[in-house]
Structures are given as C-alpha cells and as structure tokens.
Amino acid sequence: MTLKIDGAGRVVLPKPVRDRFGLKAGTDLELQETAEGVVLKPVRQRPSLVMRDGLLVHRGKLPKGIDWNRLVDDDRADRIRSLTDE
C-alpha cells in the first residue's frame, strides 16, 4: 500500500486500516524508527508492565492521583497476610 505525505507532513491511513486496528481520531500512536523505515503502533497495544531482570516494571503512562506508596504498602500487607494464613 502506498500513501502520500501532504505539505504539513501528515499521512492519512485508509479507513479499512483504521477500522481493522480500532484507530479513531485522537488515538495515540508510537513511532519506531527501524533500518527499513518507520513503524506506527497504537500506544494501547504496548504492555505497560514488562518483566525486566525478574521484576515487573511499569512502562506506561502513570495515572494521575495515584498514591504509589499506599499501593505498595497495601500489596505488602496482602502478601504478609497470605503468608500468615497458611
């Protein structure tokens, strides 16, 4: 499939492609540069949690208003409770 870039640097994705991938106006896309060219990926398809050196690491956007210390404390308490329940 061949597409053209307009004077403002925009590319229009054909409707069947947008529909197939669920792309709507306002969808965030990630641009990756490769040796062959560029790749566009919807941001929502990228996992926000990935395993790195045996630990889950969050790579996504952080939600506003989240109290990370409370989340860690709650998770720690749940783990301790599950150990003492055995």
Counting H and I runs of at least 4 residues, what is the number of helices? 2
Cα(first) to Cα(last) distance is 59 Å
Structural class: alpha+beta
Poorly predicted spans = none
Mean pLDDT: 87
Q: Bin the strand percentage.
A: 15-25%
| Main sheet attributes: strand count, strand direction, barrel closure | 2 strands, antiparallel
**Strand tally:** 4
Strand order of the largest sheet: 1-2
Radius of gyration: 20 Å
Order of helices and strands: HEEEEH
Shape: elongated
Helix percentage:
25-40%
Protein architecture, described:
By secondary structure, the chain is an alpha+beta fold. The protein has a domain at 49-84. 28% of the residues lie in helices and 21% in strands. It contains 2 helices and 4 strands; from the N terminus they run αββββα. The chain has helices at 15-21, 68-84, and strands spanning 29-33, 38-42, 49-52, 55-58. The strands form 2 sheets. Strands 1-2 form a two-stranded antiparallel ribbon. Strands 3-4 form a two-stranded antiparallel ribbon. A hairpin with a 2-residue loop joins strand 3 and strand 4. The model has no long low-confidence stretch (mean pLDDT 87).
